[in-house]
Amino acid sequence: MSEASAPYEAPPPQSLARLAFANRSFLTGFVITALIAAMALLSFLWTPYDITHLIVADRMKPMSWQHPLGTDHFGRDILSMIMIGARNSIAVAVVAVGIGMGLGVPLGCWAAARGGWVDEALMRFNDVVFAFPALLSAVMITAIFGPGAVNAIIAIGIFNVPVFARVARAGALSLWPREYVLAARAAGKGQVLITVEHILPNIASMLLVQGTIQFALGILAEAGLSYLGLGAQPPMPSWGRMLFDAQTRMMVAPWQAIFPGLAIVVTVLGLNLLGDGLRDVLDPRLRRER
Amino acid sequence: MSLLEIEKLGLAIGGMKILKDVDLAIEEGEVLGLIGESGSGKSMTALTVMRLLPHAMQATGRVTFDGIDILSAPESAMNRLRGDDIGMVFQEPMTALNPVKTIGEQVAEGIRWHTGASRADAEAEARKILDRVGLPAAKFPLSRFPHELSGGQRQRVVIAIACALKPKLLIADEPTTALDVVLQAQILDLLRDLVDERKMGLLLISHDLAVVADMADRITVMRHGEVMESGVAATILTEQAHPYTRQLAHASTHVPDRRPPAAGSAAPLLEVASVTKDYPGRRASLFRKPEPFRAVDDVSFSLHEGQSVALVGRSGCGKSTLARMILALDRPTGGAIRLDGAETSAMDEAALKASRRKMQVVFQDPYGSFDPRHKVERLVAEPLHLMEKQPSAAERRDMVAAALHEVGLAPRDMEKYPHEFSGGQRQRISIARAIITRPKLVVADEPVSALDVSIRAQILDLFADLNGRLGVAYLFITHDLTVARAITDQVMVMHDGRIVERGDTGAVLDDPQSEAAQALVAAAPDLSRALARRLSGRG
After folding, report:
1. Which of A4, A180, A186 sits opposite B329 (nearest CB)?
2. A154-170 as b/e, with b when 16 or more CB fall inside 10 Å?
């Protein structure tokens, strides 16, 4: 029976949100991510302490009612620093994913639509970028252009480009031979129009899922770079550098390392759960098996 | 006692009843044809016998196979039955085989598992059964992979797997629906020989009466999960006592009323002049240029306004490639294609716009031919992009409504998504999209082969009606001669990239001259012929 061959069906759009929140991993991921984002936003208005004030008398205080997560070696409140550090992590990851999507998706769609040598050239160039260890190359870029949040963003963004280009190209390639694309071509529509009308909406879900994964990786990469001193510069706190500062004092003041580390783990976990949940919700074949 | 006995079988998922009081029985060495349209529950009945139902389905009633109560047997007992005493052949040979295992491994697998034979013994056994299904060792060693075989050959491998252990019952669920008519005839012959040879019971599931008419000893007709009629094949097919059986029989031989085509103008609408298409072949070595594969070889023909022409041929003969070139979706390697005097094969996309308005396309797959994320209004309006003056939103809606009305759908359907429609309705939407620009030529690539017989009859009626009312010329691409006979004035037979015969439909189909055409005609399932054969065999 032709009915049994399970044709691809797009879910009716209105029920998507309801479906998403019925998915446990999406819900958990969404809540965690929303909390982190809210924390970063709140830090613009209010933090428990002013972190530009160094109070040496209060240095390396363990957890207490005054300082719920303790203080660092300059006497700054760790909770406040984590709140402000979240801004930096999120900003870097958002812009880096933006760069990756903004350049990668058009490139991938172009490669799929044109085929031939354009495809070949773009994809081999992609392979070359892929072949560089991302973090090392980011170190190189920041070494040349100087450390700082902006350069970290660009470095991480560049390595997102081939990831999105590949996902977009793979998705688009599988759609081009579909009969509805042929029908659109028979209706005289050009490659750009077909890509905008038929290809992009149908690969959007794949890109969204990849986006959350890259977002998590971006946060990790930013932490790595600022751990090496190549990310945001002091006095702007960042999770990676907080870990670096805590390293030598691990035995004396473990909370100084534990809480920024936890912040990174929880954020990445939240984003991965969100991505997993999104994929389950958006891919009707996976949903049906549940 | 019968080999397989199904009594009062009911099946429900959630609160929905899928099967209601189904009764059937198969004796040893008997062929039971199970007929029904999509959704009639015939595949579900087969899966119940194998106990391969999706979870959450509750079966009630009694299924006895060879004295074993299937519905209450433990899973381990079912594992011993499946593949050993009951074999199954699926519809889609492309997905029924594991692509990363050789055919030898796949046939031997079941033998080893069920009999505990050594690898060498199992492979020897596998070799024997593959020889039997027509895949001799010289050409098809056990080390072949599924992708190296054609669809018909793969279906032979699937049959070999199912029959390797001499099952008592073979279940074949639409075993030939995905194959062209010539392969269909070969596979049916093979099944019949195996049944005679080994005294197997065969449950042959099909939506097409003509297919089972030749094969079955008894027939059960199902509809909406219920048995409509059941009895000896010849009686059921000749008497057609039950109205639903009659309806099915009529549908499969349905010929729409058509007016003879008006004498058109002398200049042809479409002219194809010695068109050739080469595809790059497989590279034999890194340093040698690959030999091109010639898909279409020096094809010339012309088609006049309002004329309906069928292009028939077996799968892989180049007919779809030719269609794509006519639609200017592919460029020919050599030759020229002219539509209304304009040479479309030499134009760029911008210049093609005017020509594209005059030709549109209807595809085979009613599921794949729509973007699942667009509403019907947008889907049907797509070709309006070709209009010289872009219509306003209100005009667009009017035109879509008119096109939907032409194909027998309601204007309010334009607010729905394609998955809200059945296969037949989707094919109507597809036709609405094709006629919205009032083209002179519609190329239809197997437009009804994915549809049930009664839906097929309705869609053919629609094509005939539009041909009469709007004067659209058709190029019908099909491997099904009943379709060609029903709706076309002329037939072209294509074989290995060439057109080997052309003539009036009736003349070619009744008295084919070329070998390729004779093979197609001989293999086509035909209800009345099958009945005549059966009755004469008896009398």
Report:
1. A186
2. bbbbbbbbbbbbbbbbe
- A187: contact with B, CB 8 A cutoff: yes
> What SS3 class is residue B312?
strand
Q: How far apart are CA A47 and CA B401, in angstroms?
A: 61
Strand-pair partners of B32: B203, B218
First to last CA, chain B: 30
Residues from chain B that touch A180, judged by Cβ atoms under 8 A, are 368-371, 379
Q: How are the residues of chain A apportioned to helix, strand and coil, as percentages rounded to the nearest 5?
A: 75, 0, 25
Q: Do B38 and A3 touch (CB under 8 A)?
A: yes
pLDDT over 80 at A201, yes or no: yes
Q: Which of B426-446 are b and which e, b meaning 16 or more Cβ less than 10 Å from the residue's Cβ?
A: bbbbbbbbbbbbebbbbbbbb
Instruction: Tell me what pLDDT residue A10 has.
Output: 46
Q: Where are the beta strands (DSSP E) in B105-263?
A: 169-173, 201-206, 218-223, 226-232
Q: How many angstroms separate the Cα of A106 from the Cα of each of A164, A207, A217? A: 9, 12, 22
DSSP B73: S
Phi-psi domain of A75 (left: phi exceeds 0; alpha: psi -120 through 50; beta: other):
left
Question: Strand order in B169-173's β-sheet?
Answer: B86-89, B169-173, B201-206, B31-35, B218-223, B226-232
B145 in Cβ contact with B137 (< 8 Å): no
Of B38, B349, B382, nearest to A184 by CB-CB distance is B382
Using CB atoms within 10 A of its CB, is residue B77 exposed (0-12), middle (13-18) or buried (19+)? middle
Structure-token pair, residue B450: 């994915």
Mean pLDDT of A204-223: 90
pLDDT in tens, B137-149: 888 888 888 888 8
- Tell me if B363 and A9 make a contact (CB, 8 A cut-off): no
Radius of gyration of chain B (CA): 25
Omega within 30 of 0 (cis) for the link into A235: yes
- Residue A183 has its nearest CB partner, among B91, B369, B450, at B369
pLDDT, tens only, A149-186: 788 888 888 889 999 999 999 999 989 888 889 888 88
Nearest 5°: the CA angle B73, B77, B81 is 110
Of B245, B201, B232, B218, nearest to B46 by C-alpha is B201
Q: Which two tokens stand for residue A39?
A: 């924390």
Structural element, H or E, at residue B493: strand B490-495
Here the tokens at position A92 are 């870097």
User: ipTM > 0.85?
Assistant: no
Could you tell me which residues come within 8 angstroms of residue A278 by beta carbon, excluding any fewer than 6 positions away? A20, A26, A205, A208, A209, A212
Q: Which two tokens stand for residue B436?
A: 């919205």
pTM greater than the 0.95 cutoff: no
Instruction: Collect all residues of chain B within an 8 Å Cβ-Cβ radius of residue A172.
Output: none
Please tell me the distance from the alpha carbon of residue B113 to that of residue A12, in angstroms, as a whole number: 45
What does B80-133 look like in DSSP terms, one character per residue? Answer: HHBTTTEEEE-S-TTTSS-TTS-HHHHHHHHHHHHH---HHHHHHHHHHHHHHT
Token pair of A103 as six digits: 């350049």
Distance from CA of A154 to the nearest CA of B (A): 35
Token pair for residue B87?
């074999």
- Is A190 in CB contact (< 8 Å) with chain B? yes
Amino acid at B434: A
